[in-house]
Write a structure and sequence with these properties.
The complex is a heterodimer of chains A (139) and B (188).
Chain A lengths: L5 H13 L11 H13 L11 H42 L5 H9 L2 H26 L2
Chain B lengths: L2 H10 L3 H22 L3 H18 L9 H20 L23 H6 L3 H11 L2 H12 L4 H8 L3 H27 L2
The chains are: A mainly alpha (139), B mainly alpha (188).
């Protein structure tokens, strides 16, 4: 083979390797031999690998973060609903043409204990669900 | 609809098993890319996991404009680059087209290193690890994953001409280092 520059030599070797021909023989030019050795090493699979069950671990991680995301969305909806409640009270007041805001709150005063009880019950259910059920499902 | 398209559609519809199949199919590609960029072996698996979580989140945006492997490789490349930007001081920007023929910090092989590595293969791999990130990535994608210049360009965001230039330059640098090593061996 004639003396060639590095780029031409690399391009030629690329072509030969693609065709599955390794042009190594005892009389091979030193530069060519070095390039072929580099090409061979670069095409050798590295010995490191991922742990067994890597794909399952990725899927588990995704499922966990999906649960967290769904919970976050549910809390956001809940918070929005809580914000809407006073607005709904004001709207009702406007619909029933009651001019006195305090009178509305006084009317709510009658049901304050049942309302508080229901609210506490909901919080308790949420807490128990988190503490006993979800932790068992996702240890 | 080909097999890959069907797989992606099943994943988007929420089929978790299908996603596990996708991970198994491309984990080798992601490992090779991340492994070449991130040097801390204990962090490689975490970065690979991060890559696949990003792939899952962005899969609905994938429009089949490029091969899925190229698209995943581009996410792996960006994630690994961001990781080393956060954790190390290694420069990640590429050289200019007319950049230095020798690498920073006095080039690839120094005499001490030549004495350290008894085996030319170990020496060569040590030199590959010293190459700039873009060079290492391109070498991996070209030789190990057998991607074309165009696909490597899509994965790395580099123009095709630059990809070719970096590939040839990286191999030339390695050849020169190996030549110096082999010459030094004769004098031992």
């Amino acid at each position: 083979m004639k003396e060639e520059n590095d780029d031409e030599l690399q391009a030629w070797l690329d072509e030969q390797n693609r065709l599955g021909q390794k042009p190594l023989s005892p009389e091979t030019d030193e530069k060519l031999r070095l390039y072929q050795q580099i090409f061979d090493e670069l095409s050798t699979e590295p010995p490191v690998g991922l742990s067994y069950g890597f794909s399952a671990a990725v899927v588990r991680q995704i499922q966990k973060s999906d649960v967290v995301r769904r919970e976050r969305r549910a809390y956001a909806v809940l918070g929005f609903c809580l914000l809407l409640m006073p607005l709904a009270a004001l709207a009702m007041q406007a619909v029933f043409r009651n001019p006195d805001l305090m009178e509305t709150f006084r009317a709510l005063d009658v049901v304050k204990f049942p309302a508080l009880f229901i609210l506490l019950l909901l919080v308790l259910i949420q807490w128990a669900d988190r503490r006993f059920v979800k932790r068992k499902l996702n240890p | 609809m080909n097999d890959e398209e069907g797989l992606v559609r099943r994943i988007i519809l929420g089929d978790v098993r299908a996603y596990q199949t996708l991970v198994e199919r491309y984990q080798r590609l992601v490992l090779h890319m991340v492994g070449r960029i991130v040097h801390q072996s204990e962090d490689i698996e975490d970065v690979c996991q991060e890559v696949f979580i990003k792939v899952y989140r962005h899969l609905p945006d994938y429009k089949f404009g490029s091969k899925l492997s190229t698209w995943i490789a581009s996410i792996a490349y960006r994630t690994a680059i961001n990781y080393i930007k956060k954790t190390s001081r290694e420069p990640v920007s590429g050289f200019s087209e007319q950049g230095p023929e020798e690498l920073p910090n006095s080039g690839l092989a120094n005499p001490e290193e030549m004495l350290m590595h008894q085996d030319w293969k170990a020496f060569l791999h040590a030199q590959i690890d010293k190459l700039p990130v873009q060079y290492r990535t391109i070498l991996t994608l070209y030789h190990l994953e057998e991607l074309s210049y165009e696909e490597i360009g899509q994965a790395t965001g580099l123009p095709e001409g630059t990809v070719k230039n970096y590939l040839f330059r990286a191999r030339k640098l390695l050849k020169e280092a190996l030549l110096r090593y082999k010459n030094s061996e004769q004098w031992r």
